[in-house]
Structures are given as structure tokens and as C-alpha cells.
Amino acid sequence: MNKPMIRPTVLVVEDEKIVALDLESILRGLNYEVLRTASTASEAVRSVESNHPDLVLMDIRLQGGMDGIAAAEEIRRDFNVPVIFVTAQSSEKITRRIADLEAAGYIRKPFAKDRLQAVIETALIKRKR
Amino acid sequence: MTHRKRKRSGGKKTRMTVTRTASTRRRRPGALRKRAEKHAKLNARKFTGPYKSSAVLAHELHVHQIELEMQNEELRRAQRESDDARKKYRGLYDLAPVGYFTLDGGGFIHDLNLRGAELLGLERANLKNKVFTAFVRVDVRREFISFLNAVFTKTEIQKCEFPFQRRNGTMFYGLLEAQEVPDRKTCRLVLTDVTLQREAVDWLTSLLREKEILMEEVNHRVKNNLQLVLSLLNLQAGRVKEPETRHILKQSSGRIRAMALLLEKIYSTKDLRRIDMAGYLGGLVAMVFSSHPGSAGGVHWDLDVDRIWLEIDKALPCGMIVHELLSNSLEHAFPEKNTGEVFLSLKQETHGLILTIKDDGVGLRANLDYRTATSLGFRLVCSLTEQLGGQIEQKKNGRGTGFQITFSPSVPVADPVLVGQNRPHSTDATSIPSPLRREGKGEGGN
User: Fold this and answer.
1) Beta-carbon-side half-sphere exposure of residue B178 (alpha carbons within 13 Å)
2) pTM score, two decimals?
3) How large is the average pLDDT for residues B186-197?
4) Which residues in chain A have their CB less than 8 angstroms from residue B220's CB?
5) Is there a cis peptide before residue B50, judged by omega within 30 degrees of 0?
6) pLDDT band at B44, cuts 50/70/90?
7) I want to staple B402 with a disulfide (CB 3.0 to 4.6 A). Which of A1, B241, B287, B395 is the partner?
8) Helix ranges, B14-51 (H)
């Protein structure tokens, strides 16, 4: 009897509820396990600490004092979980901060499903290695 | 000159009128002698009797005396001219709107004008032999010393801007221009107060920064809102059972993406007025193909776009037309979904821009007139062509379907009185296109 395939777990960090719902819907359609969405950076860090997801999709501008990049730094440093940024921010300053962080991916809003899928798959393959 | 003893002729002082310039006489030393001779002859005295032998000597002395007096007159004139020039130079030096300094290699002030003293905030007398470096702001003194070294080691004029601080604590920004003088011990330095210019530049820089922040914010919000709309459409499409409705929602998403791509290009190129059509249409074609993975599987595309920059008013309708016609091709021209080709070009011709989109698919249904078709896609194409002030033409050349849109790249300036009158009339069949439809899916492919 074949073992049931373990679906990768993804945490969505997004404070726009409609966008979060859309992301969750797309991820489920791609057969990923989706954790409860976090809408602040600190909530995201706590969720990663307790749920240990395989991947985090992170918006940059979030509610609360900490932004998505700061949260990603913490998640990477303390839990070694890859983070893909999904953001409408595209300024030079932001892209430089993302590059310094060596993020697993960067997707600009409005995103396309095929691009989202490709970046997620690449990040998970890299993680397995 | 051999005669050293000089005697005034009878104590009588002779007045001379000198008309030639000193430089002329310097060039012709014999001329003065001739003039003195002439003058002596006119005022000749008779030497007779036993004094006759002395007459020649007396004459010589007389002429020489006159010559010396003329030289004296010349020297006095030269002195006066020199004094005048010196006063003039001093006046200009002191009243110059910039500070002039003479410094040595150690930065000690040897001389300065009044403006220089005013800039440094002290009396001129109190600044002589003081170190100029002491007035340069502390944190940049090392750079000033390097600047001064460069002045004394290089031949060309050295320029640099430094912040200065006066004894009373007030600050100003000064532009320094300096060059070593030929004695190689000092340099001439010009100090110009550029505080106002500096403040203006700082003000403009901060305005520019504010504008950039504002643009970033607007860009972020617009893209975020477009994402919200797309997410809503996606969520709605996920809950709809009817394929036709899902298709309509998908088409709407595609149109929004075409607009979002244009915005992305505008913000990424930093030119808010114009857009590089080669980059935009390339991205748009790739986007439309990736959003039709099933139908576009075996279809290739060929893009040929000149380096054309269009204003947003033209670029957006142009992009939307491409989106509609390309989507139409991918959805209806290749029902077998095996192979085919879509060709897109935008060329600059003498009579305007030519946008061509054609495919080698099954072609339009024989009885379909795109100008009267009712599908949203063709209605949009026709309306957007009208918005461009252009004309659309269907090209029937062998297999497939082709459309050619001709329009002017410049944005016409509309005269309020004539608005509407200069635009193509809606009843003109050659210029007013209307919806079309492809064979295979009936009318309303879009």
C-alpha cells in the first residue's frame, strides 16, 4: 500500500482579507496545506514557531509595527523557513532589502497564478536540497 | 650720459608739454633728445666773446636739463597712472561680490578683500596671518587640507564646495576656486557664498524625494487595489459552475492584468509620460500566452515592434486592442490546438503607426462582419481604435485573420469648439469598426 503523499504546508501572511482568501484558494487548488492566515508580522513569527510550515508567502506592508521583511529576517534566522514575498512594493529600496535577505522568491502584485506556482515549486525544491 | 653736473638755466623753470606716451618714448630714446634740441633752439641763448668756447657746453647742459625735466614729467605721469590703476584695482578687489584671498601652503591668509572678511565674519585687519582652515567646518578640515595640497601640486584651477563656520557660530556654504601663483609660495583663492543655491538644491531634492515617496505610495495602492479586484474575480470564478460565466470572469481578469502591466512598466521606467512599446507589448504577449496554456500550447508568436515610445493616452488603448485580438486568436483561431502562429507588429511609417495582429488559424466565419458583431471583444477593439483616432482594416491574406490599425503617435490637442467634429464620424464604415467574431465559437468569442 502506497503511503499517502505529505502535502507541503504554506503560511500566508497578508492583511488584505480578500487577497488572502484568493491566495488560500489558489494554494489549495495546487494541493498545498494552507495554515490559518496571519495578518501581522508578529503573528506570522508565532505561527511559524508553532506550526513549522514548509514555506511562507509574505506581504511586506502589514498591520502593526514590524514589516514583512523584518519578520522574514526573523523567520529565516530562527526557523530556517524559506519566505517568498508577494507584494505591490517595487521601489529600489525594498528590492535591495529583499536581495540582501536572499529571499526564496519575490512576486509582484497583481500576481499571476502560473508565476505564483512556479516560484513556490522552485522554493520547495531548493528547500529539499 | 657724460655730464653729471646739472644746472637750471638761470633758475627759470621751463614748462613742457608732453604729448607722446611713455611707451612710445621708451621705444624711441632718440626722440626725446630731438625734442629737447628743438626746444633749446626755440629758446636759444647767445654765448659770445670769451665765453664762446663754453657756448657748446652750455647748450649741451641746457638741452640735457630740458631732457631731464621731460623725463621727470613722464615719471610723474607714470606714477599718477600707476596710483590711479592701483586705486581702481583696490576698489574692484574690495568691492568684488566674492571673497579674494591670498594663502600660503600652510593656509595662512596673506591678503584678502573686504568681501572675504565679511564672509568670514571678522575685520580684515584681524584676519591677516590667521589660518583660513580655522573657518572651515571641523568635520571637513581634512578634506580642505587635501584640497589646498592639490592647489599647490596641480597647475589647473581647483574647485570644491565646503561648509564654513564663523566665530559667532553662523554657517555658510562656500565654493572655493584656487590656483597657485607663479611665485609657488602662495595661491589665489576665490570664495563664493553658495548657501542660497545650496538651500535651493536641498529644497528641490526634498521635493523630488517627496514626489518619489508619493509616487511609490500611489503605485503601491493602485497595484494593491488591482490585486483586490483580481482576487475578487478569481474567488467569484471559483464559485461559478457555468463555463461561459467563468470565461467572462477570466477575460475581465486578463483586461485588468493588461492595464496592471502598463502601470508596472510606467513605474519601472521612471518616465511617467511615455512607455517603451517594445517592452510593454513583449510583456503583454507573454502574459496573454501564459494565461491561455491550453489553447496556446502549440502556437508560436512572432513579435516585431520598432523602438517606439508612446504617451499613456495612446499606449493603454493600444495595449488593450492587442490583448483583445490576441486573446481572440488564441481562443478561436486554433480549434485543434496543435500548431499555428500569431504575428504582432508595431511599425513607424511615414503616415503614422501601424499595429498589425494576424494569425494563420481558421479565420473568421464567412458571414461575420467584425464592425457589426456584438461581442464585447470586438466592440472594445473598435471603440479603442476610435479613441486612438485611428482606422482599423481587416486583412484577408491567405489563411487566418489579420487586422491592421493605423494611428498617429501624437496626442492631438482638441479645440473645445471642435471636439467631436474632427474625430472619425461614427457612420463612416471605413473608420468605425465594430465587434467581430471568429468562426468556431459563434459570435461573442470575447
Assistant:
1) 31
2) 0.66
3) 96
4) 61, 88-89
5) no
6) low
7) B395
8) 22-27, 29-42
